[in-house]
Design a protein that fits this description.
Keywords: DNA-binding, Transcription, Transcription regulation. With 216 residues, the chain is mainly α. Helix content is 71%, strand content 0%. The termini are far apart.
């Protein structure tokens, strides 16, 4: 018998990853639709096709699952490689890629539903959910873009005195009027052509505002 033969993978490892993914998929669909209070761990377990014990083996409580669902949803639309200028080429191209991913994220049905839920929750004044959402989603995106803008300034592609403030400005400009209209259920769906015009105009305006200063 060959004692050095390769052993098969340990039992349950791929299944554990599949179950975790199923739990997160269920959470990403249910939290925006049913709200935090209206979504139980039992319901998530049932939707994911796993036991409640399995859910708790991956996520210690509902808040932890909520945070991870937000983080993963953001990374699906805005993966870390989007913010790598060396991979994506010129800074304009990089910003366009980020802008398209971000706009697609914020106008999705899941994101609109989640924002409405958080706004309603914030009116109660007692929940930690808005802060948890901010730290798991928007804050992480802002910080990642901030690093990109600082790097582009160091290499002379941009002149951004305050990358933190500029990152917030960029994302707010991309949201534009349409995000607010979607949020309150007003107006017709935006077309792909209009989306691209909006994104390109914002990116070009941003680049003009932070173009490198001419040396006198």
């Amino acid at each position: 018998m060959n004692l050095f033969a390769c052993k098969p993978p340990g039992p349950g490892r791929p299944k554990d990853l599949e179950k975790r993914a199923a739990i997160l998929d269920a959470a990403k669909q249910m939290f925006p639709r049913l709200g935090f209070e209206g979504t139980s761990m039992d319901a998530i377990a049932a939707a994911a096709g796993v036991s409640k014990l399995t859910v708790y083996s991956h996520f210690r409580d509902k808040e932890t699952l909520f945070v991870e669902a937000i983080r993963q949803k953001c990374e699906e639309q805005l993966p870390p490689e989007f913010f790598e200028p060396s991979v994506r080429g010129p800074v304009r191209k990089t910003l366009l890629v980020i802008a398209r991913g971000f706009f697609g994220l914020i106008i999705s049905e899941e994101s609109i539903g989640l924002m409405r839920m958080l706004m309603a929750d914030a009116c109660k004044g007692s929940s930690r959910l808005p802060q948890l959402f901010w730290e798991a989603g928007p804050k992480r995106s802002n910080e990642t873009l901030e690093h990109l803008l600082a790097s582009a300034t160091e290499t002379g592609q941009l002149d951004v005195p305050d990358p933190h403030r500029a990152a917030g400005q960029f994302f707010c400009l991309i949201k534009g009027e349409y995000h607010m209209r979607r949020l309150i259920g007003c107006g017709e769906p935006i077309t792909a052509a209009e989306t691209e015009r909006h994104i390109e105009s914002v990116v070009d305006m941003f680049l003009r505002a932070y173009a490198p200063r001419a040396v006198s």
